Amino acid sequence: MKVLLVIVGLLIFIAVIQQILKKAVIGQKKKYSIGLYEGESIFNLKPSKKNPILTKFDVRDVVASFVADPFIIKNNGKYYLFMEVKSKRKRDIGEIGLAVGDSIYDLKYQKIVLKENFHLSYPYVFKKDKEFLMFVESGENRDLRLYKAVDFPFEWKIERVFLEGKRLADPTLVKLNGIYYIFVTDMDDEVMRIYISRDLKELKEHKLSPFYKKDWSKIRNGGRIFTDKGKIYRFAQNCERYYGEKLDMYEITKLSENEFEEKFIKTILSPSGRGWNSDQMHTIDIIKEDKYYAIVDGGSFEKENYYVINKFLRKIFK
Predict the structure, then answer these.
(1) What distance in Å separates the CA atoms of residue 115 and residue 105, rounded to the nearest whole number?
(2) CB 3.0-4.6 Å disulfide test: which of 55, 112, 187, 206 passes with 194?
(3) Quick one: which of 187, 179, 178 has its CA closest to 214?
């Protein structure tokens, strides 16, 4: 009992010091976590009070370095959040993990649902007719992969392999007038490319593609394309100075087999300067219900125990 009191006392002391200094004093540096933003407008999203909602410490089936690239989908009243889990199973490699909740405020990590011998990330999950599909970044394997749920949400199988030989990142899809448009970053040529398909069985490149040669403020997608009030918004990772610098919103004003135009609207997410997202933000997925809910990721170079210890203490003294 005395040992426990000493440990709790030490944790309280460290937590108080950290609150005063606004940073951790011991521990390892933090990487990416997942948080929740919300608001009455897509243009005015604010962080939830309980952020981060998921960290690497919620992952139980593998030793994880971080969690990132969140994509959420609702089905039969439940919320399913797919994410990259940076796993240390054999080496630091991306695998696709899942969290489930009856409420968007109560997502609980389940397990890894998809892994390969190469890095996977950016699990762009969507529904086509009655099937659940998921584009996954597999650029390390030099292809673009589409998976289909055999038993949603836990079991997935490969449906199609596209564009073999290309190192592509962040596949992002929108369907418009019966046509699928897939936006990807060509990491070798440093451009954004758009591919077109009517059935997701074959892809052909857009007539005007590629776009934004070596413009790292625009060429990397940062989450699901979102349609609201008749307008279509694409989110782009602004990596002009460094990876994860901020996330910008563009309105797609023209999109067809023969044209593509978009215009800058605003920076929708940027690092907070402290805590779990102090230094980096680069992915967003928005659900509109009674208000707008945005699942986001954020990176911090602060040390991990800054919020781990405080979270532990909140559980004890709540």
Answers:
(1) 27
(2) 206
(3) 187
- Spell out the alpha helix ranges (H) of the chain: 2-21, 305-317
Highest mean pLDDT among 64-68, 185-189, 238-242, 300-304: 185-189
Global pTM value: 0.87
Tell me the average pLDDT across 300-315: 61
Q: What are the percentages of helix, strand and coil residues in the chain, rounded to 5?
A: 15, 50, 35
Q: Which residue has the tokens 């919320």?
A: 79
d(CA 223, CA 228): 15
Tell me which of 6-10, 282-286, 304-308 is least confident. Answer: 304-308
263 confidence band (pLDDT: 50, 70, 90): very high
**Helix, strand or coil, per DSSP, at residue 91:** coil
Where do the structural domains in the chain lie, given as residue ranges?
A: 29-302
The helix or strand, by DSSP H or E, that contains position 314, with its residue range, turns out to be: helix 305-317
Measure Cα distances from 264 to 89, 244, 248 in Å. Answer: 40, 18, 8
Q: CA 43, CA 269: separation in Å to the nearest integer? A: 10
Q: What 8-state DSSP symbol labels residue 186? A: E
Tell whether the model's pLDDT for residue 262 goes beyond 90: yes
Residue type at position 77: G
Cβ atoms of residues 182 and 135 within 8 Å: yes
Q: Which residue has the tokens 């080496």?
A: 91
CATH superfamily name and code, 29-302: Glycosyl hydrolase domain; family 43 (2.115.10.20)
Distance CA 51, CA 56 (A): 13
Mean pLDDT of the chain: 91
Q: Is 103 exposed, middle or buried (0-12, 13-18, 19+ CB in 10 A)?
A: exposed
φ/ψ of 130, rounded to 5, equals: -110, 10
Q: Rounded mean pLDDT of 101-119?
A: 96
* Pick from 303, 314, 253, 307: nearest CA to 279: 303
